[in-house]
Amino acid sequence: MPLELYLDLHSQPCRSVFIFAKKTNIPFDFKFVDLATGQQYGEDFGKISVVRKVPVMRDGDFILTESVAILKYLAEKFGTSDSDHWYPADLQKRARVNEYLSWQHAAMRAHGSKVFWFRAIVPIITGSDVPKEKMDSAMEDLTLSLKVFEEKFLDDRPFIIGEKISLADLVAIVEIMQPVGTGLDLFENRPTLGAWRDRVKMELGEALFDEAHKTIMDVASLPQTFENNGMLEFLKPKIQKMFN
Ligand SMILES: N[C@@H](CCC(=O)N[C@@H](CS)C(=O)NCC(=O)O)C(=O)O
């Protein structure tokens, strides 16, 4: 039985798992979980994961949540000497990958997601723009994360661990593309970041990169989807939490 991946490509962690499985030719069944219609709260998905978030992987009887754990599982299970660079056996290179994967949760992911929600989702749900001071503060946090990314994690290297792409670059690019999907050009005036994005895109292959990011580059269709599926009321408490 092929591996099952439960995904919605609006989600950054889902895109990293999707791209990795495709790029490394791991056979899998794509199980679509439509977040915009709340499918993650349905009975069927509840049997797969009580966490009710995507991505989820099922390999036979083994079910795994958390994108980073899934990526490492796939890299370790299907890894070959040719694909070692994704999650290197070398102690210090692997530690560098883990360093980025540990840092990003509360930095790049948290800050990029907040800007995405403030620009794309909150206005749909509340009917008005996020107050300027809140937006400015969210942008400041994201700017700082991007600065740390460029200065510490990239420095003058082509990729985070050096000459080769790794899981760290993959997890970074999908998070950075989330606010970009709202029309924010984060690469403008950031030549180091832009050149790295181009290298990552080339390594992954433009077609795969674009296939994975197509839905997030079309966030303009979300308001209608939310309205059609009665998600507006449901999402309001989430938004309130964000402002507290
Ligand atoms: N730390 C988790 C985060 C998973 C996560 O937050 N998934 C979001 C989409 S990006 C989700 O499924 N949200 C559904 C919800 O909260 O209702 C991972 O890396 O897999």
UniProtKB/TrEMBL annotation:
Domain GST N-terminal residues, every copy: 1-82
Subcellular location(s) of the protein: Cytoplasm
InterPro entries: Glutathione-S-Trfase_C-like, Glutathione-S-Trfase_C_sf, Glutathione_S-Trfase, Glutathione_S-Trfase_N, GST_C, GST_C_Theta, GST_N_Theta, GST_Theta
A single cellular component GO annotation: cytoplasm
Catalyzed reactions per annotation: RX + glutathione = an S-substituted glutathione + a halide anion + H(+)
Enzyme Commission (EC) number: 2.5.1.18
Lineage: superkingdom: Eukaryota
Keyword field: Cytoplasm, Transferase
Alphabetical GO biological process terms: glutathione metabolic process
Presence of the UniProt keyword Chloroplast in the record: no
UniProt subunit comment: Homodimer.
Family assignment from sequence similarity: Belongs to the GST superfamily. Theta family.
Protein name: glutathione transferase
Organism: Oncorhynchus mykiss (Rainbow trout)
Gene label: gstt1a
